Amino acid sequence: EDKVVQSPLSLVVHEGDTVTLNCSYEVTNFRSLLWYKQEKKAPTFLFMLTSSGIEKKSGRLSSILDKKELSSILNITATQTGDSAIYLCAVRKETSGSRLTFGEGTQLTVNP
Amino acid sequence: GAGVSQTPSNKVTEKGKYVELRCDPISGHTALYWYRQSLGQGPEFLIYFQGTGAADDSGLPNDRFFAVRPEGSVSTLKIQRTERGDSAMYLCASSITSGTYNEQFFGPGTRLTVL
């Protein structure tokens, strides 16, 4: 059975801290790994990773995939209160069309 | 509107009743997905459509759940004889096609509560 595991499940930091969120997966026929941010309702897309070792960056957020370790990390530097959200990791397989298999998410709280 | 829209935003019903949840995808998107998210969990795949046809319905939990997309645009998720365990956030997403490199854009969801 396909599995996506995120850690930690929750994290509380102060503004300005740097955080690293982890995602590991066990799927056959892996195609890509996606990160989403979910604040109130709709998850919003952050990154899609398909190749190992290539960092994707957007402002203070960055992410990288390690296909050997079957994992990915999402880094957020200089955190702000607006970064408080649930961060979801999802994987997509070669053989499953476009369905996404999600992890439980990491609840990040950034305090002022 | 520019994004995926879902109605209603909240639905409260009684056990045993029938409900319909509606999703209006981004204009021009041919692929549409339904997910269910329970509290404290990530979204769980239910079904996806490419055009009018259900390309993969393997995530539907049982035959009380059914979804249609008759004209290849708006989709309705139908739940018969609702049970308390059906209470969850139901999320819809669309993408330009079902290709595996296409981003899925999510709607705000319908929060279903079965009393």
Largest sheet of chain B: 7 strands, mixed
CATH topology of chain A: Immunoglobulin-like
CATH fold title of chain B? Immunoglobulin-like
Global morphology of chain A: globular
| Count of distinct strands of chain A | 11
% residues in beta strands of chain A: over 45%
What do we call the CATH homologous superfamily of chain A?
A: Immunoglobulins
* Assigned CATH superfamily of chain B: Immunoglobulins
Count up the domains of chain A: 1
Helix content of chain B: under 10%
Count, helices of chain A: 0
Structural key phrases:
heterodimer; A: 112 residues; mainly beta; Immunoglobulin-like; six-stranded mixed sheet; five-stranded antiparallel sheet; globular; B: 115 residues; seven-stranded mixed sheet; 11 strands
List the helices and strands and how they pair.
The complex is a heterodimer of chains A (112) and B (115).
Chain A: E1 3-7, E2 10-14, E3 19-26, E4 30-38, E5 43-49, E6 56-58, E7 61-66, E8 71-76, E9 85-93, E10 100-102, E11 106-111
Parallel strand pairs in A: 2-11
Antiparallel strand pairs in A: 1-3, 3-8, 4-5, 4-9, 6-7, 7-8, 9-10, 9-11
Chain B: E1 5-7, E2 10-13, E3 19-24, E4 31-37, E5 44-50, E6 53-56, E7 65-68, E8 75-79, E9 88-95, E10 105-106, E11 110-114
Parallel strand pairs in B: 2-11
Antiparallel strand pairs in B: 1-3, 3-8, 4-5, 4-9, 5-6, 7-8, 9-10, 9-11
Structural overview:
Chain A has a single domain, classed as Immunoglobulins (Immunoglobulin-like, Sandwich), CATH 2.60.40. Chain A is an all-beta fold and 112 residues long. Chain A is globular. In chain A, strands 2, 4, 5, 9, 10 and 11 form a 6-stranded mixed sheet that branches. A 5-stranded antiparallel sheet of chain A has the order 1-3-8-7-6, with no helix packed on it. In chain A, strand 7 and strand 8 form a beta hairpin. Chain A contains no helices and 11 strands. Chain A starts with a strand and ends with a strand. Chain B starts with a strand and ends with a strand. With 115 residues, chain B is mainly β. Chain B has one domain: Sandwich (Immunoglobulin-like). Chain B is built from no helices and 11 strands. In chain B, strand 4 and strand 5 form a beta hairpin. In chain B, strands 2, 4, 5, 6, 9, 10 and 11 form a 7-stranded mixed sheet that branches. At the A-B interface, strand 4, strand 5, strand 9 and strand 10 of A face strand 4, strand 5, strand 9 and strand 10 of B.
